[in-house]
Amino acid sequence: MNYLAFLQKEIHSAAFATIAADGRPQVRIIDIMLCDESSLYFLTAKGKEFYRQLTEQQFVAVTGVKDQKAVSLRGKVRIADPALLDEMFEQNPYMKEIYPGNTRKALEAFQIYEGEGEFFDLTCKPVFREAFTLSGSTAYALSYHIIDACTGCGSCLAVCPQSCISSASVPYRIAAEHCLHCGACRKVCPSGAVRFD
Amino acid sequence: MNYLAFLQKEIHSAAFATIAADGRPQVRIIDIMLCDESSLYFLTAKGKEFYRQLTEQQFVAVTGVKDQKAVSLRGKVRIADPALLDEMFEQNPYMKEIYPGNTRKALEAFQIYEGEGEFFDLTCKPVFREAFTLSGSTAYALSYHIIDACTGCGSCLAVCPQSCISSASVPYRIAAEHCLHCGACRKVCPSGAVRFD
Q: Which residue in B has a C-alpha nearest to residue A49's C-alpha?
């Protein structure tokens, strides 16, 4: 599955988080206008606090959901080629009603060009998650996993909501792609054999 | 319109933003389990980074959208009465599949109990926005407005995408509830009469 295309075409209206002037998080809904193989494009108006935050922080966290399938990512942001503005309006004609005629000049095109994210699907049983990068390189994601200190006592098996711990061999093995990250296994393990890193 | 109820019942799956260990924003989709007149309730698992961030920062920014109607808010967070956990599962029975049986013990209930937000409706022409507080007290929101330095030259009228500046009297007047915050009027005003505060 192409997660960037899913985010742009299917979810389309996503949440973009930055840090506000008070040092705390701020988040608002932004439509994703275009995507290519390794980046996303969106617009904002030059008079907004969001514009100032983007140009200063050059970083944004994004998430969106549709039908219990969510995509989240964090990445670097830069101002995009202004020539893309007209293409964005062609691909998203509803924008012509919000910014009619020449008023689109108030807008700036931005690109998320580097970063990593995660897809999370609650419609699967067990749930399914997968990390990805915008560049297509191997993604590194934090995960719960079991180290050699595992004695195979079985305590963790009873508390895993997704039954995604295999006891076929010792140390036991957590199927990271089905893990909720709830931490119940780590809490009950008498041997300190569950790690999250 | 009751914006908290719209966020909980209609949007339901919203974006929750915090600050990650790297000092940058992080955002993920969280379902809003319950609401009352002045607060929202949600769950997260104790093994998650999000749980740690919530207990440390005691603050969260939330946004969600449905059918081009968005609600965003920022507010204080605290751990809620654990007795609410079972009520949340009763009101949201799909949670029983994700955390079956006793595995719900891995979860903690949180409450957003103080804060302020904004409703934004793109289906209206012109767009409609309204600030609100969780407590029901008068909301204070940043807005574009025109001060006495306005000469009535008309420059701003031509660039407002929503045609929401009235020239019936001088100083002109911006209808804040229909303003996109694009800043085009401020940019073209030769008298510096447009403020955003």
A: B181
Distance, CA of B139 to CA of B116 (rounded, Å): 7
Nearest to B48 among A17, A72, A183 (CB): A183
- Kindly list the residues from chain A whose CB atom is less than 8 angstroms away from the CB atom of residue B57: 24
Please give the full DSSP string across A116-170, using - where no structure is assigned.
EEEEEETTSSS-EEEEEESSSSPP----EEE-TT-----HHHHH-TT--EE-SSS
Please count the residues of chain B. 197
Among A18, A72, A186, select the one facing B28 at the smallest CB separation. A72
Half-sphere exposure for A94 (CA within 13 Å, toward CB): 11
Return the pLDDT at A138.
84
Number of alpha carbons in the 13 Å side-chain half-sphere of residue A71: 22
Q: Is A18 in contact with B28 (Cβ distance < 8 A)?
A: no
What are the pLDDT digits (tens) for A29-78? 999 999 999 999 999 999 999 999 999 999 999 999 999 999 999 999 99
Contacts of A127 in chain B (CB under 8 A): 98
* Spatial CA neighbour of A29 closest among B7, B38, B114, B136: B7
Is the distance from CB of B74 to CB of B173 less than 8 angstroms?
no
Domains with residue ranges and CATH for chain B: 3-133 (2.30.110.10), 144-196 (3.30.70.20)
Closest Cα partner for B120 from B193, B36, B178, B37? B178
Cα gap B65→B134, rounded to integer Å:
18
- Closest chain A residue by Cα to residue B104: A161
CB contacts, 8 Å: A48 with chain B: 181-183
Given B18, B102, B187, which is nearest A25 (Cβ)? B18
